[in-house]
Specification:
Helices cover 38% and strands 17% of the residues. The chain is α/β, with parallel strands linked by helices. It has an eight-stranded parallel β-barrel with strand order 1-2-3-4-5-6-7-8, surrounded by five helices. It has a five-stranded mixed β-sheet with strand order 9-17-16-12-11. Strand 6, helix 7 and strand 7 form a beta-alpha-beta unit. Helix 10 crosses helix 11 and helix 15 packs antiparallel against helix 16. The protein is elongated and about 80 Å long.
Length: 580
């Protein structure tokens, strides 16, 4: 969806809205960390995110990749920065073509900074002189396909302090076809409000989003305000001076300063805010909490999982539960599908999942971080204790889950810890839910005035002998179904159908029942290869002949991966009886 359309909708509803900016990290680990952060920050409800473009296109391929992944894997409406500094026409054509192919409809058109090592900006042959030229070119080549944003400088451009000239340039960009404006960072709110008033008087009517950069560190703040020639009110300077050597105090001050700025702007009629995140999460989250900015559930959580915004997946509304904690993996392994499940998974469907070798399976942590968290287990019981610690929030991640337990797991946290201590190593779960309102902050999702349901679900690794005991107990519980498979692909089950089993569904006014999450045999068999490969990645952290490596490899080679569903969703904790 176009950013201008989303802004118009928010304004029509009379609500505040916000957006985030990220930049391409320099390392592969940094990129993966950014993806994890973007996935978490989806829950904060930004209307869109944008990703910067290195001077002269130095990060162009990575910018396109991050925008495409944010759009397709994490459901974040993405805006791709595009600069014309030292950019030949062919490179701009390629970037626009790739953006359109990825379903990206939003471009932030900029002149850009000179490449590193070049002190001043110069136009090049076949390039563009100003952002206005880039806006015109995009409109000429693509008509109204792209929503185009442009930059504005309330205090004047660093290369041109003439405010009248800058206003003229901004109006030219608007007249060339810009749809909205994002401003440079500032800290003087009265200056901004005066500037915005002047914009309106000058005939600029499109939305303007003030750029808010939280103060993260004193040194970085000084460098950025100097580089951008940003005026800093005396109040901020005097309040920062006594705490400038205390990093935590500066960060806390930055959060409160941003809250105060946004509240002041809001009291003067401003409803949209663009946050320069610097790829950091905590400060922005605390600012939004301090402002009381909470996105409506039907906006922030239209389904129990994050829907993709890729063009070819726009009608997708059903997924297997197995990739709950590895969204990007599921997107990559299904990207070659011609169509995606809509309404029902379909009993006759036989999806061809991409091979895991096609994109690789990896741990989200570095080897050093992983070893620090998981140590060197030498007994199965020590592995189980790691899973118990994870359930108790004493461990931040496991190979199958790179973030702490979701809030919905709070109701079953102690039960999960108990069964892990018994040797059932859980990697996925959800509690039973019997018709909570769709507005429920923990279990709710989907349109307003609906009701949400889910069956209790557990997925875990277990030794063969414990599996035999478990299967015997399951025979005494007619509502419970299971699938169990080992690394070699030997499947055990008590289900009588190859069809999908809906484990999450919602009932909403004026539409059919929505069943967005299923358990299904073919998908489970595809997922098991990935689940077992993560054991291998864990084992590879240790020397070849070490006890830890041999132990983990033994578990990987002999244990079963099991999923269990209690189809009696009215029995909240019935599923746990089979583990006693």
């Amino acid at each position: 969806m176009k950013v201008a359309t989303k802004i118009a909708k928010a304004e029509a509803e009379g609500r505040c809205f916000w957006s985030f900016e990220y930049f391409p990290p320099k390392t592969e680990i940094g990129v993966n960390n950014l993806y994890d952060r973007m996935e978490r920050m989806y829950a904060l409800g930004p209307e869109f995110v944008d990703v910067t473009w290195g001077a002269g296109g130095s990060t162009s391929d990575l910018t396109i990749q991050i925008c495409t992944t944010a759009q397709s894997a994490y459901g974040l409406e993405s805006v791709m920065h595009l600069t014309c500094t030292n950019m030949p026409r062919e490179k701009i054509d390629y970037a626009l073509s790739e953006a359109k192919a990825a379903g990206i409809q939003n471009i932030l058109a900029l002149r850009g900074d000179p490449p590193k090592g070049q002190g001043t900006w110069t136009a090049i042959d076949t390039g563009f002189a100003y952002a206005t030229d880039l806006v015109k070119y995009i409109r000429q080549q693509y008509g109204d396909y792209f929503c185009i944003g442009v930059a504005a400088y309330p205090e004047g451009h660093p290369d041109n302090a003439d405010l009248e000239a800058e206003m003229k340039h901004l109006k030219e960009k608007v007249d060339a076809g810009a749809d909205y404006i994002v401003t440079q960072l500032f800290y003087d709110c009265d200056m901004y409000l005066k500037w915005e008033k002047n914009c309106r008087a000058y005939g600029i009517t499109i939305p303007i989003l003030p750029g808010i950069m939280p103060i993260q560190a004193y040194g970085g703040f000084k460098r950025m305000t100097t580089l951008c020639k940003t005026a800093v009110p005396a109040k901020i300077t005097s309040e920062l001076e006594p705490i400038k050597e205390d990093d935590k105090a500066v960060k806390d001050y930055g959060v409160q300063c941003a809250i105060d700025m946004c509240n002041y702007l809001k009291s003067n009629g401003i409803r949209g805010f663009h946050f320069y995140t610097m790829n950091l999460e905590k400060s922005v989250r605390l600012i939004l909490e301090g402002l009381g900015f909470v996105a409506p559930i039907d906006v922030a959580k239209p389904l129990p999982w994050t829907p993709s915004l890729a063009k070819n997946r726009e009608k997708e509304n059903v997924r297997p539960i197995f990739w709950k904690n590895r969204t990007r993996s599921y997107i990559l392994r299904t990207e070659a599908w011609d169509d995606f499940p809509n309404g029902r998974w379909g009993d006759s469907r036989s999806p061809a999942y991409g091979e895991i070798d096609g994109y690789g399976v990896s741990l989200k942590s570095t080897a050093q971080e992983a070893l620090a968290m998981w140590g060197t287990p030498t007994k199965v019981g020590e592995i189980a204790q790691l899973f118990v610690k994870y359930c108790h929030n004493e461990l931040s991640s496991l190979p199958w889950s790179d973030t702490p337990l979701a809030p919905e797991s709070e109701a079953i946290r102690e039960r999960l810890a108990d069964i892990n201590a018994r040797g059932f190593l859980t990697i996925n779960s959800q509690p039973a839910v019997d018709g909570v309102p769709s507005s429920n902050p923990v279990f709710g999702w989907g349109p307003k005035n609906g009701f949400c349901y889910q069956k209790a679900y557990l997925e875990f690794f277990v030794s063969p002998d414990r599996l035999d005991e478990l299967v015997e107990k399951i025979t005494q519980h007619p509502f419970i179904t299971f699938f169990a498979v080992n690394k070699q692909g030997d499947l055990r089950t008590n289900t009588e159908s190859d069809g999908p089993n809906a484990v999450t569904w919602g009932v909403f006014p004026g539409q059919e029942i929505v069943q967005p999450t299923v358990v299904e045999a073919i998908s489970f068999m595809a997922w098991k290869d990935e689940a077992y490969e993560l054991w291998n990645k864990w084992a590879e952290l240790y020397p070849q002949d070490s006890i830890s490596r041999k132990l983990i490899e033994s578990v990987n080679d002999t244990w079963y991966l099991v999923n269990v569903v209690d189809n009696n969703f009215k029995d909240e904790f019935g599923i746990y009886e089979i583990f006693q």
